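User: I'm putting together notes for a lab meeting next week and I want to include a structural view of one of the chains we've been expressing. I don't have a solved structure, so I'd like a prediction I can at least talk through. The sequence is below, exactly as it appears in our construct file.
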Amino acid sequence: MALWARQASRWCCLLNTSRAAGFPRRLRSCGSPAQTCRKFAPLALLPAGKDGVLWKLQACRHVSVGSCSAPDSAKDGSFSSLESNLPSPVKQEQAKVETLPDLNAKILNEDWDDIPPSSALEEISEEEAVQITAEPILPFQSTTLRDYVDHSETLAKLVHLGVDLSQVEKRQKAGQLLLTLDFEKDIRKILLFLKDVGVEDNQLGPFLTKNPYILGEDLEALETRVAYLKSKKFSKSEIAQMVSRAPYLLLFSVERLDNRLGFFKNELGLSVKKTKDLVIRLPRLLTGKLEPVKENLQVCQIELGFQRNEIQHIVYKTPKILTASKKRLKQTFDYLHNIMGIPHHMLTRFPQVFNSKLLRIRERHMFLAFLGRAQYDPAQPSYISLDQLVSLPDEVFCAEIAKASIQDFENFLKTL
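Assistant: Thanks for the context. Below is the predicted structure for the 416-residue chain, given as structure tokens.
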């Protein structure tokens, strides 16, 4: 009986092998309801040549539930072949021989087309190592445009053109704008437009450094603004001068430009020609804020006591007074008028004195007063104009105005 149990166990193993290979399990009923018996037809592996194995159908005895008696041949110590007891269909199946490929891993790897991936620890030759190039990783975000220059053709060409990216990235959203533009598609046409307006090649880099936003403007809108300036009788050279000195000028719409020109004409009471001349000499008046201009005009009229016609003359001769610091403007006027005794009409005649540093005015006036030559009345002898006081270099001032040496002037300054 033990031998029969071992043989039954072997048949079960063979059955599991047949299931793993994808073969169906054959069931046959014994026909006896009391004996729930099944005929297993396990497939036993038998040698079948070099390249395959022979799957041969073997039969089994009926096994009754509740009894496990061994066959007679097993009791005799032998196990004869059961082929004679197999029915004819089983005998026919037994004769069938099927050859399957060997499941050896080496043979399967030879049949596969895909090459197994190489290991990261695989050693390579020095020649292969030299040929490996590591591209720099493009940062997802950065605070400087320098990290993107090697990856962006647009940035590389702008640097070659003379654009200072370290200054551009300080301007709000200017760096993001440049990274979204294509040089050939978006930027080239703007550069050609600026050259046609009159911006020199060596000025393109500094111009775009100050105003990179123009690269994102619509070309047709830019051409419309230039056409407006031409309609106001500005010559091509004057437009080129204004655009170069005030890079943000072309960002202003036609309506805003027209309002700015009208403001200066009406507030100052200037003619059209003088208004044009004013903005040509200081074009940032058209692009700057108007509040400081209005405040300075009020300071000149109310606090400094100038008449309207005097203000017109001062502003036309020295436009920078409109954008000067109110504090510095009042301090300079106080020293000139109250300390040096210069009247309003003299200050109106030489308004450029307001552009000079107060320290320079004070040092030279005190030196002339020390020498007894501080005379600013044109009706008196040894008269010294305000223009000579502030505009001449130290050597010329000492030799021609103070009638002293430069060493005397420097020694005097040490006593202050």
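A couple of points you could mention at the meeting. The longest helix spans residues 2-20. The first strand starts at residue 43 and ends at 47.

User: Perfect, that's what I needed.
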